[in-house]
Amino acid sequence: MKVYIDGEFFEEAEAKISVFDHGLLYGDGVFEGIRFYGGGVFLLDEHLQRLLDSARAIHLQIAMDLAELREAVLETVRINGLRDGYIRLVATRGSGGLGLNPYVCRRSSMIIIASTIQLYPEEKYRDGLTVVTCSTRRTGPAALSPTVKSLNYLNNILAKIEALHAGADEGLMLNEQGYVAECTGDNIFVVRGNTIRTPPATSGALRGITRQVVLELAKEAGWEAGEENLTRYEVYTADECFLTGTAAEVIPLVRIDARPVGDGRPGPATLELMRRFRERTASCTTPVYP
User: Is the Cβ–Cβ distance between 114 and 76 less than 8 Å?
Assistant: First the structure.
């Protein structure tokens, strides 16, 4: 595998950054995950714009514009000869001193990795996930906007540890007010009758790109779909629940905190949206190969 770092490609074993990089020392940077299917990158510009927006929000100057980023991503996939997989972009503040001052970093760094990924085994898409509520809370917007995909995911990792120790697949994270925010790596949706709801960004949810696609697909299919503050009560009493994310795509949630969701099996709305999402990934793509 070849990895892109600041305009050059390196073999995986030789792909290195400085130990003084502020992304390593302080989590000072942002990232983005993108999927590609059948030689086409799904919603490439939307993901790249979100990366640029995250960087702008933390006053990180990326030394590449949208067109340059797009070509670097496509070339990274091409040089690795891949047709299906996952792209990870990491923008760091760059190499600097041991202090917090970000302005000692002379130039930001851009890393692009293209590889294969399977976040959950196939049987989880068929049978569904189990989830527990974690004591670790989602970072509040007063500390850091949940829209920023920063390199500091420590609270999500701590919540994931809780979930794994409890024998669950995923962990549900609440905000400081007790409202549902999201899971450790995915957005959450609840289905009740003809309505589909997901927490808003003001509750601590990332404005996920897969989340937005699913909201659009649900409306096209005739559901009343939108954002709403949710408590665990709405999750516990939902007819169906599912998670969305770039890596996870759309996946059913069938059990939370020892309670079955609905009848404890993936429901019809979830299965229909899984199907529609997979169809959508065949379009809205940027070709990798000429």
Answer: yes
Spot the catalytic one: 2, 16, 124, 149: 149
> Which token pair is 220?
């096209």
Q: What stretch of H or E contains 109? A: strand 109-115
User: What would the pLDDT profile of 165-222 be if each residue is shown by its tens digit?
Assistant: 999 999 999 999 999 999 999 999 999 999 999 999 999 999 999 999 999 999 999 9
Distance between CA atoms of residues 207 and 187, nearest Å:
8
pLDDT category of residue 290 using cuts at 50, 70 and 90: confident
Residue found by looking up tokens 């099996």 in the block: 265
Task: Specify the length of the chain in residues.
Answer: 290
Q: Is 149 a catalytic residue?
A: yes
Which H helix or E strand runs over 68?
A: helix 66-79
Backbone angles phi, psi at 269, to 5 degrees: -65, -45
- pLDDT for 117 beyond 90: no
Q: Which residues contact 238 (CB under 8 A, 6 or more apart)?
A: 190, 191, 192, 261, 262
| Chain mean position to CA 152 | 14
CB-side exposure of 202: number of CA atoms within 13 Å?
4
